[in-house]
Every structure is written in C-alpha cells, then in structure tokens.
Amino acid sequence: MLRCERCPTMSVATPESTADVVDLITDARLTGLPLWFTGSGTSPVPDGHTVVSTSKLMGIVDYKPDDLTVVVRCGTTLTELDAVLSEHGHTAVLPETTGSRTVGGVVASGASGYRRLRYGPTRDRVIGATIVTGYGEIVHAGGQLVKNVTGYDLPRLMTGSRGALGFISDVSLKLWPIPKGRRTVSVANVADARVEAYQPIAALETEAGGFLHISDSSGEDEGFSWPEPMMGEVVRVVNIPPRLVPDTVARIKASSATRFVAQHGVGAVEAAWDGIAKQQLDEFRVWTESCGGSIPEMPQVPESIGIQRRLKAMFDPDRICNPGVLPGGV
Amino acid sequence: MTLIDDLNALLGPDRVLRHPLDRTVFAKDAGVTSGDVIAAVLPESTSEVAAVVKIAQHHNTPMVPRGAGTGLAGGAVPAEPGLLIVLTRLNQIHEVDELARTAWVGPGVINLDLSKQLEPMGLHFAPDPSSQQACTIGGNVGTNAGGPHCLADGTTIAHIVAVEFVTANGDILTLGSEAPDQPGLDLRAIVVGSEGTVGLVTRVLVRLTENAPDVATLLIGFGSIDGAAGTVSGIIAAGLIPAALEIMDAPMVKAVENFVHAGYPTDAGAVLLAEVTGTAVDVAAGVDTIKSVARQHGAMAVRVATAAAERALLWKGRKAAFGAVAQAAPDYYLHDTVVPRTALVDVMSKIYEIGDRYELLMLNVFHAGDGNLHPLVAFDSKEPGLLDRVQAAAREMVEVSIDAGGSLSGEHGIGLEKRDLMGLVFSDVDLDAQARVRDAFDESRLMNPGTVLPEGSRCFDANGVRL
Question: ipTM for the complex?
C-alpha cells in the first residue's frame, strides 16, 4: 500500500494481478473501508476510500488480428492499445482524445468517441470481461466472440457501471478495420449533410462550423482530423435526443460557451465555458431533462432505481466497490 | 377467484386461451422442447400486460412471454406449468423519427413487416433472422436475434435504443432513452437476450439503418468447405467486414437448389454467399477483395449479382435453407455454436468427423463471418436409437466448439434446450453471478423460471455465504 503524493492521507493500492484485486476486496470487506477504483484518475476520489489504481495492470493479453478481437488489461492506456492495433490497420473505436486514459476507465465510464455515429457506442465493442465482484469472486463473462448469446450480457452491463458492481480486470473488445481512406469535409449544414451522406464516420458541429468525417476506400487520408480536446473552467456533456441537437447548439452558443462539439445523429453535445453561473447550468439541466436527456455530471435518479439497487446489493453487498458512484447513491 | 377467473375478468374469455388444442399449440416453439401451458393470454396494451403480471403474481403462477414462437431453443416454452403471455397483438408501429432514424414499435410487429413499412423512407431494421417473415421484434429482443446481416451491423442489441418494460411485479419502466448514455446501469444490456426471464417488453425504440446506395451479392463455388472457410477468415484478415458472409456445404446446396432453383452450383463442395454494401466505390473495392481472396483459396466459379432481382434469388436460396431440409428427413436438430473466426476451418473439420462417426445426415449453412455455426442434423425420430445418436453427436459438436474458445449460442439463445450445457462454458461462480442478475430483476422467480440457467445456479445465500 502506498500513500498518494498529492494527498498523503489517502492510501493507494496498485494491484499487479486479478488475484491482488481479490485480496484487496476481501480485506476491504473485513475492514469495512470502501475502495475507489480509478484508471487515469480523471474522476475525484471521495474521502475515506482506498484508491485502487490500475496502473500496474497493463498490457495486451491476447490480440488475434485475423479475428479482429483483442483482450486487454484494464490499466492499458488508449495510446498504447492504439499503437499496437494500428500496426495491423485496426481500431477498437474508443474515444479519440486518448492522453493517459485507460481502457478500463473508458469501459467503466461507458465513454464513447465521435465515431459512434458509424460504429455505435463503446458498449457495442465490449464482448468479454473478467470481473472481481464485491464478494471478491472472479467472474468471467463473454469471450473473444463477436456474436454470443450464452447467458446474460454481463460485459455490456459492466460497461458504464463505473465500478459499482466490481472491478473490471480485463476486457475483450471487438475491433474494426480502419477505413483505407478518410476525409474531413467542411459543410454548411451538417444536419442535412449527415442525412445525405451514406454512413459518415461522424457529423460534428463546432464553433468553427460543420464537419463531415467520411471514409472513402478509393483515397488516402486527406485532411482527416478530430477537434482538439475540450478545455475550460467548466466542461459538460449534454446528452439529448438527436433531433434536438440544433436547439442545443443554439442554446450553448447563446450561453457564451468558449467551445463546443455537437455530435449530430448521436445527440451528445460537449461544451466548455470559462465561467458560467451555477444557476445557468441548472437551467440547462432542467431543460435537458424536460427533453428526456441528461447531463452526466448532474444525473437524475433513473426510473429503474429499484432494480439498480438490487443489482448493486447482489454484486457488492458490503458497498465496498465505488459506493454511491451511480445516480441514486448506488 | 381463480387465476382463470381473474384473467377472464380482465381480458374476456376469448383472450384467455385454454382449449386443449390451444394449450398444445402454445406448449412448443419451433425447436425440440415442449412444456405445460395453463393458459395463453392475448393482452393488447401495456396496461393489460401489467395487469396480467399482477394477476399471475397474486396466484403465484409462472409467466412465459412469447412472440411468434419461432424460437429454436425453447425460451418461450414453460419449464413448469405456466401462463403464456403472448405479445403478438401489441403490433403497432407507433412512431417513426426519420431524421433520428428510430421508431417506437410494439413487440408484436413482425420483423420483415417493419422493414417493408420503412422501405419508402430508405430505411430498414438490420437484424434479419431466417424466420424474419414470421418472427416478432419482441422475440428478437428476447433472444438478441441475429441473422446474416448482423456481421457488419451487429445483433439486435446494437439496434435497441430503449424499451418500455413491465417488471416481474407489474411495474412499467422505460429502460434506455432517445438521448444517448442514460445515467445509471444500462439495464437494456440484460433485458435484450434475457429470453423472458427478467420481465416483459411492451414497446421498443429500435434504431433504423439506412439502405445502402449500392449492393453486390457474390456466389462463389469451392471444391471443399476448407476453401470457403479459409476465404472467410482471409476476407476478415484483409480488413474487410462485408455486410454478410454465409457458407453452405454440398449437401445443403443440393437440398436448397432442389427446393428453390436459385442457380446454385450443385457440383461445388461448398458455396460462399457474400454481400458488400456501401457507395459504388466501396462496393467495387469490396468485390475485388473478395474475388482475390477467394481465388487464393481455390474458388471455382464466381457469380456477382448487382440487380435486385438476381440478388433476391441468391438470397432466396439461403433463406429457404431450413425449409429445404424438410425434403431430407422429418426432424432436424440445429446447432448454434459460435467460435473465433480463425478457428472455422479446424472446427468444421472436427464437426464433419463427428457426423461421419455417428453416421448422421448433416447439412451446414452458417454465418461464417461471425463464426456462428449451424450444423443441422436431419433425422427421423421414429427410427429406434437414432435420437440418442443425434444427441450424443450434438454434445460432442458443442464440446469441440467450446474447446476452440467458442460458446453455446450465437443467436438462438439458451432456453430449455441448452440450459444444462451452461456448465461447459461457465464456472459455478460465473453461473451464480448470472443467477444474481436474474434475482435482482425478479425476486419472485416467476418470470420464465427454470430456463437459461441450470438448476442450482445460486450457490450463495442472501448474506453472501457460500452454500
């Protein structure tokens, strides 16, 4: 057990194997001290939790290029994974803003990248997982199979679970070939352009205008690029029914946002402000929720909270694994 | 008041079917298992479904949701005497959002009818099981159904945005949302493919797929199944994910050609049916890649169809395969194992060896691109001892698939048919975790009990102590 350099009162554990994670959870059940699983540490840790860092659970376990599947340990960074996969012309289609983000962190948060318009969200890629539940048991689910209906889809349930049901030790991912040629095309009306184009990779609108990201198997990569990572004092994602993206963009523009990226056809709009009144954000949340959407940092309690609580109790009865991380205190 | 009295009061006696003939009809799906039906009810709205569930709970009666009954694994067959909740009358297409490419539909809508309705908008529902002329969207959700075109598009789960869900207690919830990434656990992940064991789906928000501007269908003959299987692995390895990659072996090609006269080469050892979709440029490049890989694997004849009528004829052969088998024998046993795509050649050769050893008539047509195998053993159950041989061979075929890193089912589901094989894939701990998921949804264990998970899957008590 280490002490965190930034906050010396916090314990940090760095398991090196799934068995180490089992030990940590078993100990935590005895002591009653909850654990906080973290990937690259992008989300804040609440007081009184032992941090479980995935930084020593790294590397690719099994990459089958001819099968377009890979098994990867949770602490592997997106940059490392991309480096190996791109050698074979493959991608796991995880978020494009890689940095120090880890595969486990992305899967646990359920975060998707811009390419979800074409390839679907990250959860469509998670085909297997090794999980250590709050009982300290190792559960295997799914496998290196692109199609599989053998039992409940636990890997998919774990995607976006934020560690509330247990520790995701490794995951099996379905891969896609990177298109032979890609282009980013500037368009006047991105909403219309998306509908007219056949299966664009992404249809983005930013403060700089509208862009269609398309594949073209006749060409080389030509001016293909993604928006720069979002920076700002306040950064929020607004998830909205896709038809309301133009409305959302208009509201964000009117709110003096410094930057934004709107995903047409998907319904995710990310915006950055260099200062925005709490009241204004609250109004935004109220409007978003009234349209059936959500802002992940300010989530409402889902209708299915009863089932969610029972699932938590069935997988983490002592509330050891990231307790309260999900809406409704799950 | 008895269960039947309560149901009659709610729905009227003509929607509570209990004639012996009805009970026999609803006791089976399209597979090999059958069960004991107390009654089959035909609710017509979400509130009626919820009321039926409350009545069944009050009388402590097992409930089994059912669509068109085209399932092959016994997921809609009661394991213990139960009430069939038939959802085929919830068959409205409520609302289509052309721009968002989604539609709210009832679970009773027939798969192919939905795509036909959407044709003028240039859209379709991508999952296309062979039974798509009869199977329902609700059944597709229940089994996480597949089909030839799930290779590029993904199985049903990738096309379900949200569901209106009636819990085992009769509460009505919406799981998922039009907006992406609803906060909290993604319960759709469990509901889709749950085979009726966690609750009922009464409305479905489906994702619609745009029709491709260009399509080419290729029919390629090979001297042997190895050439066809090797081509499939080679195409995937070359970085191409076609819309579909289907293989048929010689016995199946002969049966199909005899049945639909689609012009399949009956002298071939195996046939590969491939389809590429996209822009004209993408389709041309895809056709070139497939032809070139096929030649490297000894392709004999290549036929490329781009006109709709000719493509439809080639597909007719594939989709009529199971009907064609009826010519060979009165009964059939159909597998659904799935293996890594790189293991196709090896596993197929072992499966043929098993079929030969047990002296069985076996035909193969399968979703090769997904590694989803469908060895089909045609037999006559009246022939003494034959069913035993079929079942012994079946187990061996499942075992060689699992040994290669595969699993029991790619698209049909587990149901009653494969329930007792789950231990081949999962440990006791894995199965216990699966059983806890079910219990979290349904404390009463009245939702389609006794299916999917083998008896005794729960090995912990309520306090987490191992029993």
Answer: 0.96
